[in-house]
Amino acid sequence: MKKRRPTALDALDLKLLASQQRDARRSAEQLGEEIGLSAAAVHRRLKRLRDSGVIAAEVAIVDPQAVGLSVTCVVTVDVDREGLQDLERFSARMRACPQVQQCWYVTGQADYVLVIVVADMTAYEAFTREQLLSDSNVRSFTTHVVLSPEKTGLQLALPER
Questions:
Q1: For the structural domain made of 11-51, what CATH number should be given?
Q2: What pTM, to 2 d.p., does this model score?
Q3: Which residue, of 30, 35, 131, 138, is most buried by count of CB atoms within 10 Å of its CB?
């Protein structure tokens, strides 16, 4: 992900962002009523927030169970070589893999943390064979199978001004 320079946000921007995180389907009129702006002002602010990259995407959140994806695994991965090309190759493969919901290059005992969502353990085993065991730079990986997703999401705790 490309790093961006922080954008100056005022209190109304933060209120608008908080509301959008809860439900991005609301109309400009509804948002304006909630935060005290006209619909036109809401449109201008949303355009600026999108154009500047503050709002990175607006997506539908699909219930994994509803589409037959009932297994979530959190996987830590250790690699042998941490050269720039080796890391970029692994990161690019994970970004391209549809089963990988999230991928982080991290500090600590592991080099990467992955969130994998699949239909069943057979599908997870296939993922490990294709993506991890076949990669000569993967030293080891540890799988944590999620028993109960207590909280998921990408909402940020925005500061109040």
A1: 1.10.10.10
A2: 0.86
A3: 131
